[in-house]
Each structure stands twice: as C-alpha cells, then as structure tokens.
Amino acid sequence: MYIKNPYEIEKKSFEIITKELGDKTFSEDVGKVIKRIIHTTADFEYADITVIKEGALDRAKAAIKNGTNIITDTKMAMAGINKRKLSEYGGQVFNYVADEDVAQEAKKKGITRSIVAMRKAIKENPNGIFVIGNAPTALFELVKQIKEGKAIPSLVVGVPVGFVGAAESKEELLKLDVPYIVTRGRKGGSTVAAAIINAILYML
Amino acid sequence: MYIKNPYEIEKKSFEIITKELGDKTFSEDVGKVIKRIIHTTADFEYADITVIKEGALDRAKAAIKNGTNIITDTKMAMAGINKRKLSEYGGQVFNYVADEDVAQEAKKKGITRSIVAMRKAIKENPNGIFVIGNAPTALFELVKQIKEGKAIPSLVVGVPVGFVGAAESKEELLKLDVPYIVTRGRKGGSTVAAAIINAILYML
C-alpha cells in the first residue's frame, strides 16, 4: 500500500521538507523556491547554497506576467518547465542547442554548442529569462554580454552543475547587479533549474 | 578565461571525479556509471548509494544492441537520453505521461498519471528498458507487474527522487531478481536516470 494521489504526495512531501528544515526559515517566496529545489533533489544542502538577489522574484513574476520568453541551456530544463502554465501569460521556452547552425558554428570554432546557442538566444531575446542548469560556458558567455550591455535579463537562473567552471561562472554572476538565482559551488542541474522556474510560476 | 572545448571539459571533469573518489574503486563498467552520475549531480554520495545488480550492465548492453525500446517516467529523462546514439541500434524512447487517455484515466481514478502511463508502457513493451527517475508510484506499479509476470524488463533504472515512497519503492525493487540499477534512499532524479542510460550507451 502506498499513496497514489498526486496532490497528497506533493502535500506530504512539502510537509516533510518544512519539518526537516527545522530552524531554517525563509521569507515566503524564497522558501517556496528552496523547498521546490529540495523536493526535486532530496538534497537539503540547497538550503545553504541557494542565493536569491533581492527583488529578483518580484521582477521575475512581473516579467512572466508580461509574457517574457524563457531561454534554457538544455532540452532537459526545457522539458521540465511547466509550459502550459507559462503560456497562460503568453511566454514560450526556447532552446537552441540542437539547432543545425549552432552545431556547425561550434564545431568550426572548437567551442561548446552552449556558447553559440547563448549568443543566438541573446540576439533574439536580450531581455529574456535565462535559465542555465548545465553549461558553465553558457553562463560565462551570458555574464560577458551582460557586462557589455548586450543582454539585460529579466532573470538569470544560474545553476550549472559540475567540476569545470560551474562554481566559477556562478561567482562571476554574483558580482553583477542583475536579478539572479544561484546555487553556489558545484551543485545544480537541469532539474534544479526547472524547479526554480516552476516555483515562480506556481506563485502567480 | 575558461575552458571552452567540450571534450576538454568532459575529460577534465572525469579526472577530477576519479581523483576525488580516491580509494573508492569499482569494476570498469560500474565505475563508468557511477562517475557519470556524479558528473551530472556533483554529488559524491551517489558512489555509496548506487546499487547495480550483477550482470545488469551486460544484459542492458545486449538489449540496446538488439534495438530494445526505452520507457521513461518523465519527459525530462526522455530529453536527457542520447536518442541519436540509441537509434543507431534501432531503439526508441517512449513516454506516455502526457497522453490524453493517460491524463483522463488518472483523473477518473484519482491516481498519478505515472501509474497509468506505466500500465500503458508495460502493455506495449513488456520486455523494455524501464527508466524511472521521478515517480515512486511508477516504480511501485512496475514492481507489482514484474511479480505478476506481466513485465519482464531488460533493465530497470529505479532512481525516483523524493520524500514519499521513493526509498520504499526502491527497496521493493531490490528484492526482485531482475536486472536493476538503484540509488538507495531519497536521492535520484531525471538527470541521474538519463546519465545512467547514457553511460551504458557510451560503453557500446
């Protein structure tokens, strides 16, 4: 015998998470983001490494309500975002990493497809919501273009995962005065990225 | 300045993982699976909680070479699997969770779409490779049908994540004499599930 009702499962999950967080409390919206990350990873370390720029959640909510598009660095993050909910406000999710022109350009230059896809994304949506769950190279490129004034994001979800450049790319983002959500250090990922966006969508 | 070449990034990542694993060593194929999970999560706990049934990797490799189909419990896991590589051997990835008939049946019965989607998947591919990265209810249903002799999987990747049923569903799977890969306890997820399948694909 086990719980088969999806609403009961989610309710019980968040009760357990809240209980196990114990003394750690957050403002309402920040708590919603952090709990949904823990819900998707079963990893309480995210309560300590998640950094949300002041005002970023309000700015992101307003942007979504305005129909702002979301750009992800992977198909996985794209797949995980609740696109039905997003489309209620007119926004769409884009990912260019599998585009033929991106693949060719990356191969020619010997750089990641993530960098080339990010360049394409910024050209098409300089004020978009940028969601990076996997590729540090995509986040480094975005940081560079923010500094140059070419990208003015409504939100940067900077949660690439890994051992080469992930932590460093997030520290670069933290230096900027833009609305961001970051998981410091090596941890993150496409499921974390999607969970953050969905947490914001469910606040609306 | 940062590394922009995708092959260098992956090579360096696996070197760091191998170094930090230190004394923990594994047989060649098992090591490849565990290192790819850590690569995708930056979480070394997976070295301790990943359990691979003896012979499961050889069986899975043979199944993939034979064109066996893969069924996932989420669109995210589906998105993360290297489908181009899989298709070289004739296999495809299926996921039924967003099907209209699945949604209707689940709503009518007040159970998760994951359960209904799993029932549909077993009917269509009783000998498939089942990849469960998210929903304990999908894994409970699969375990039930394995016991009833209705599902005879070529491999079960049982890595659902979460607080309600995830750990318990994996313990049920561990009791069965089927080829499985499990991450004990609460941890797992769609990225972990996809990483396991890709690790096997890259062995071929």
From TrEMBL, chains A, B:
Record domain Cobalamin biosynthesis precorrin-8X methylmutase CobH/CbiC: where: 8-203
Domain of life where this protein originates: Bacteria
Keyword Nucleotide-binding: no
Signal sequence bounds: none
Biological processes annotated in GO: cobalamin biosynthetic process
Isomerase recorded as keyword: yes
Entry coiled-coil feature ranges: none
Alphabetical UniProt keywords: Cobalamin biosynthesis, Isomerase
Pathway info: Cofactor biosynthesis; adenosylcobalamin biosynthesis
InterPro entries on file: Cbl_synth_CobH/CbiC, CobH/CbiC_sf
Entry's Gene Ontology molecular function annotations: precorrin-8X methylmutase activity
SUPFAM superfamilies: Precorrin-8X methylmutase CbiC/CobH
Family that this chain belongs to: Belongs to the CobH/CbiC family.
Record protein name field: Cobalamin biosynthesis precorrin-8X methylmutase CobH/CbiC domain-containing protein
